[in-house]
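ok trying again, last paste got cut off:
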Amino acid sequence: MNLHDQLGALESSLDALLRAATVPPVTGAAAQSAAASAAASVAASATDDIAEPPAPLPPRADEFEDTALAAADAQKQAPAEAEPESEPESDAPPALTVSRPDRDTIQMTIAGKSVLLNPQGVSELIEELSNVRASMSVEQPMGVAPGWRFAATKNPVMAVQKHANGDRLLIMRHTGHGWVPFTFSPDMVVELYAMLTRR
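nice, full thing came through this time. structure:
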């Protein structure tokens, strides 16, 4: 029913009410019955005149594809948005922390990553660092720094090898550094002997 038909039905219902109002008043149960029937007819007319909303049309194929693509994009972006924001990186380099959980293990931690080293791993690390340090342009200090901490090895095991040019290779076993090699020229051998035998 279109809007014009609805208006016509409402006008006819209104006319019926006006005619009922001009009739001489009726008292008692008859008046209540007439009023009730008039109200019921108006309500029925108003209800009948309301048109049902049209059913929605099914989506077009291209709209369905657009909706599916939008949903897929939302799912891809959802995990990234759900992740907590990482803390801003500071300009300071990460600090190295070395601890000793027990006698035969050390733990090295840098930038939140930790590694445990056993005695063999510690020896390999010392050897690698020693080789790298020897190749650096900045040399070790020529003098002994005050307060320097060291672990001395008493009566180390030694091995000597003579080269064709007269130099001597002296290798001494340190309890911390392992085998430490030194090469002496003939003059330094004499000076070393003099230093060791000086009273």
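cool. Residues 3-22+31-49 form one domain. Residues 45-51 have pLDDT under 50 and may be disordered.
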